[in-house]
């Protein structure tokens, strides 16, 4: 990617994975769907079941070839988030509540001004990783072992 293309990347994304959006331009204009994937390096999003194209895939080891129907990316400017109250496409703004939390708000002509909730799919990612020790992890008893005592000087190297 050249420096000109990098200048045009969206810095503050208002569309998130899992948002309900309406396609406002292109062959699927007027249709709604959920965002499946956000490709920030290209300013594009993939909407579930929309912008379908035929892809010719050559067969190889472990997979068959053929003609498959896949979802192609759409430019982020060609989709708009749906207002949760009216169900119409709207712009997205941000607002801080009294308790200090930052929320997304429906903006624009005919928008309700209601809060757009964060998609549930994003909350799933915040679950902690499993705490099962792997083969390269240091055992807990070795980590907790005291190897230096400041009073007696035990553990100091002989210099």
TrEMBL record:
SUPFAM superfamilies: Translation proteins SH3-like domain. The keyword Ribosomal protein applies. GO terms for molecular function: RNA binding; structural constituent of ribosome. Residues 14-41 form the KOW domain. SMART domains: KOW. One of its GO terms (biological process) is translation. One of its GO terms (cellular component) is ribosome. Pfam families: KOW, ribosomal_L24. NCBIfam families: rplX_bact (TIGR01079). Belongs to the universal ribosomal protein uL24 family. This is KOW domain-containing protein.
């Amino acid at each position: 990617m050249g420096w000109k293309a990098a200048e045009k990347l969206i810095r503050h994304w208002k569309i998130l994975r899992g948002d309900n959006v309406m396609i406002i331009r292109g062959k699927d204009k007027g249709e709604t769907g959920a965002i499946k994937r956000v490709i920030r390096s290209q300013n594009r999003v993939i909407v579930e079941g929309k912008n379908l194209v035929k892809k010719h895939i050559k067969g190889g080891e472990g997979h068959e070839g053929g003609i498959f129907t896949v979802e192609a990316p759409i430019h982020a400017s060609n989709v708009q988030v749906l207002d949760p109250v009216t169900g119409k496409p709207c712009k997205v703004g941000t607002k801080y509540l009294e308790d200090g939390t930052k929320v997304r708000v429906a903006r624009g002509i005919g928008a309700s001004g209601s809060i757009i909730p964060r998609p549930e799919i994003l909350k799933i990612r915040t679950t902690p990783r499993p705490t099962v020790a792997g083969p390269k992890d240091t055992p807990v008893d070795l980590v907790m072992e005291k190897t230096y005592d400041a009073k007696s000087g035990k553990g100091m190297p002989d210099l």
